[in-house]
Design brief:
By secondary structure, the chain is mainly α. The protein is 56% helix and 10% strand. The strands form four sheets. It has a three-stranded antiparallel β-sheet. Helix 4 packs across helix 5, helix 13 crosses helix 14 and helix 14 packs across helix 15. The chain is elongated, with a radius of gyration of 30 Å. The N and C termini lie far apart (84 Å). The relative contact order is 0.06.
Length: 372
């Protein structure tokens, strides 16, 4: 087959996939299937799997109380209902259509995908709104067509295609984790991917792994994690799973890439919702004041990261440093411009500081130098 014919075939297949995805709606499929059950059995499944308005999954005991039956009887109704739905689905044209869509999504992720990620990608492919619970229930009905990867201390629960070589996943994840340990700092995904491309594992599996597949793989790892600002690292790192308020402050400043008032830092921590613990301005201010190794006061209540080049001290100290580094006297405007790169203060504050005759000498040409 010629390259042009291959290209045409690829476009035809891609179009067919998009058409199938456009017609795919797990909610409609599940609702139609549930009609084969009695009203009570259908309601039991609705309640047990959260297929209701509040999305809350009811316990066996809660459902048993509602229908005045035992927990064991509820479990039996659930099991027999799901079995009946699976058999019914296999007899319908929708079964093949649904499998094609799910298989294609998993194939695009390299043949394996973390379950929550699969739910998210199914939601992306469905044009109408559908809840996570409906998708999870639907996946349960077709799960036997895929191979489950059980949750472990290193791996999140995932699904893979039957022909996927699971050893590739384990080797890639092991190398990715070791790579992060070697780098020793948080990375953007692009930086993580570029580093992985330099490894022997990438050379070995280059034909099977691209950027998107690598992302799908590392999402399966329990050792690797992405923080709220899309930096990757080891789960145990403070800048990936921040527990101390100090680390949350650092991440907020690093992400915003500019000095912020301590009240604004507090607001942004609460907006980000790292762990649900509320940040209070007074607490944030105390952390900023006490940690001189990380933060520098650059204005009234405004702090910057020390790693950005800011240094502690009052405005006159900053002017001294500027003049010490200069190989010539500087004009007032030049000094103001340089100070404003390091401090968030009013120009009048800088001008008043220049009037300190013990430190600064104003020359006849209106430039300034340090006093001897």
């Amino acid at each position: 087959m010629t390259q042009d014919n291959n290209s045409i075939l690829d476009r035809v297949i891609a179009t067919q996939i998009k058409e199938e995805q456009a017609q795919f709606n797990p909610k409609v499929t599940v609702d139609n299937l549930l009609e084969i059950l009695s009203k009570r059995d259908k309601n039991v499944l609705f309640l047990r799997h959260g297929l209701i308005e509040d999305d809350k999954k009811r316990t066996l005991e809660e459902i048993g109380r509602e229908y005045n039956i035992t927990r064991e009887r509820v479990r039996q109704i659930e099991a027999s209902g799901i079995k009946a739905l699976k058999e019914q689905l296999k007899n319908e044209e929708e079964y093949t259509h649904s499998l094609n869509v799910v298989e294609q999504i998993i194939k695009e992720q390299g043949g394996v995908i973390e379950e929550n990620d699969l739910v998210a990608k199914i939601k992306e492919s469905v044009y109408e709104r559908v809840t996570d619970n409906y998708i999870l229930f639907f996946l349960n009905l077709i799960r036997d067509r895929f191979i489950s990867i059980s949750e472990s201390v290193k791996i999140k629960p995932s699904l893979r295609l039957t022909d996927f070589d699971v050893e590739i996943l384990y080797k890639v994840l092991a190398r990715a984790e070791d790579l992060m340990k070697e780098v020793g700092e948080i990375l953007s995904f692009d930086e993580f991917w570029r580093n992985f491309q330099k490894t022997d594992e990438f050379s070995l599996y280059e034909s099977k792994i691209d950027k998107e597949i690598f992302l799908s793989y590392i999402k399966i790892s329990k050792k690797l994690k992405q923080n709220p600002f899309n930096y990757w690292g080891l789960v145990k790192w403070n800048l990936i799973t921040p527990k101390r308020m100090n680390d949350k402050i650092y991440l907020i400043l690093k992400h915003n890439e500019k000095p912020l008032h301590f009240r604004k830092i507090s607001e942004k921590i609460n907006e980000t919702k790292f762990d649900g613990k509320k940040a209070h301005p007074a607490t944030i201010h105390n952390e900023l004041i006490l940690d001189h190794s990380r933060y520098v006061l650059v204005g009234r209540g405004i702090y910057a990261l020390k790693e950005w080049g800011y240094k502690p001290g009052i405005v006159s100290d900053v002017i001294v440093e500027i003049l010490e580094r200069s190989d010539r006297p500087l004009s007032r405007d030049e000094i103001i411009d340089e100070v404003l790169k390091k401090r968030i203060v009013k120009k009048t504050t800088i001008i008043l500081s220049l009037m300190n005759k013990e430190k600064f000498n104003k020359l006849e040409d209106n430039t300034y130098q340090l006093n001897d």
